[in-house]
Amino acid sequence: MAEAEEQETESLEESTDESEEEESEEEPKLKYERLSNGVTEILQKDAASCMTVHDKFLALGTHYGKVYLLDVQGNITQKFDVSPVKINQISLDESGEHMGVCSEDGKVQVFGLYSGEEFHETFDCPIKLLLFERSWMSRWKSSVLHEGEGNIRSVKWRGHLIAWANNMGVKIFDITSKQRITNVPRDDISLRPDMYPCSLCWKDNVTLIIGWGTSVKICSVKERHASEMRDLPSRYVEIVSQFETEFYISGLAPLCDQLVVLSYVKEVSEKTEREYCARPRLDIIQPLAETCEEISSDALTVRGFQENECRDYHLEYSEGESLFYIVSPRDVVVAKERDQDDHIDWLLEKKKYEEALMAAEISQRNIKRHKILDIGLAYINHLVEKGDYDIAARKCQKILGKNAALWEYEVYKFKEIGQLKAISPYLPRGDPVLKPLIYEMILHEFLESDYEGFATLIREWPGDLYNNSVIVQAVRDHLKKDSQNRTLLKTLAELYTYDKNYGNALEIYLTLRHKDVFQLIHKHNLFSSIKDKIVLLMDFDSEKAVDMLLDNEDKISIKKVVEELEDRPELQHVYLHKLFKRDHHKGQRYHEKQISLYAEYDRPNLLPFLRDSTHCPLEKALEICQQRNFVEETVYLLSRMGNSRSALKMIMEELHDVDKAIEFAKEQDDGELWEDLILYSIDKPPFITGLLNNIGTHVDPILLIHRIKEGMEIPNLRDSLVKILQDYNLQLSCMKPSLQVEK
Question: What pLDDT is attached to residue 6?
């Protein structure tokens, strides 16, 4: 029996889904299941005629005059043999302790479910609506609310308002004022009221929803203003929404500001062109002033729908839980709002895994049937099946989190499909750490096909993730086939560095002339390892090498560096020059050697060196400069050694530079030098011009002028004489104040 019921439930869900999902990708709003257990047993022998819903239980009436009390799973808790004929309507009080039942034979019974209290009344012809009230003597007092317009088809009571429908329309009675406050006429009088009965539903204490035929009206009961009272009721009804539906209405229920409508559907067969009863529909609609908007629509495969009429369907609901009961003679179906688990089910069914994962994360406290991890794993599998390996691998980070076992499982899955490279960038590198074999497996994959990718992983992955010696050996094996591969060599150096095998790492870096060599030396204090590699370092980057050596004199002495560079004098010069720039005295023992080095490799810095060094042997320097005919350097050395006249002579004879000669004479401030300069210049007009322009403040110009041969053309002589007079007048003006002071 249970298996049959389960199959029927699945059939109901499948048929419901097929109805609209074939045409639309919109998610359904409701889900359905059959009310089974005791209900199944009841409807195998009897037929349901009506039902009412209480917060605590359900009450089901049948065609054979039985009333069953059921729990929400459909199990029978009580049974009442009320009448030999059909039960038309059941009513329960708010406490759920009293039940009223009316049957087809005109009998009305009210009795206590848990007491012996009971009331019976029989009506021969159900054409009146009577109100029974207890008097102060606990006797029942009746009053006629309405009569004379045919059968009363439906009654709904809420608060102080009673609504009922007869053949002419719908009336509302106010118990407080004892007045009928409205009459809403029936629209389509062509429909038989017994076949297409009116559906009434109170949304709240003042809002009545009327469904009749294909028409829906929403009525609002309002208080009348005192100034409008006169002889009118204190309340009136305003129709706030009115619209037509596509099918015949069998039941109505509120859902927040929307409506749930149960519709009876007739369709025409394409083959026979005959009208037949189709599956009933349950729609959620949004009422507007004069129309409505369909939110969702489901066709329901209830048992025996082919034989049912509009009057055979009823819609009952439980306000607190948004549960809706579709009642038909052979079936009771429960519709309920879909929860987050249902929403996720639908997303997964539509393969919208990203949205399903997001929905589960947002509502993780509310979902009961789904787990975020399970959804995530299904998402990864889906992406892999689609061939979106990179996206699948990226999602692993978020989905697998810190679960090492799941990470390892997924890595092996990626290996099976040949996609280890795809997952490698996203592997955890700490918290969690996977087994070394996992990382080694991926490194070997790259080493076989992608040296650059392999090198990237070695740089990015901490060395303790894998067995370093295993990977070193693998790289060395590959270098046997390609010994000059720079990528592999550099990577091997990095592996050696992590393994603290700095000597091998340094050797590779120097061979590759890699920029990281200096960083490696500094970081790991490898100065003892580079004493015999100074030339290699200098060849690679002399500036960085010299700075490093000078910064670490305590680890590699100046003497050791100079000795290592003995066969490379050009590098020796670079080192000693930088040493001299830092400190003029530290390398004094090498200053004699530096004279030759400057002369050979860096003449522009020779003269500054000779000027700044106090440890340079002048005779040796003079010898070298004279051998190389370095005039300026020789002039400086002769002057420094006290041989100014030879220095001046060299300026005049070798450089032919009168300005330099005059400047030199000025610096020495020696009369004999000026005499030598005048004698050398007397037959050279350009020199005479230079002297006339510059010696005015050092030597009496008359001495020079008297020696100029008569008739010699002197360039710019007039200007030179004017300058001499100006200098003379300037001297006189400077002397006058001092003469006045003496007087």
Answer: 44
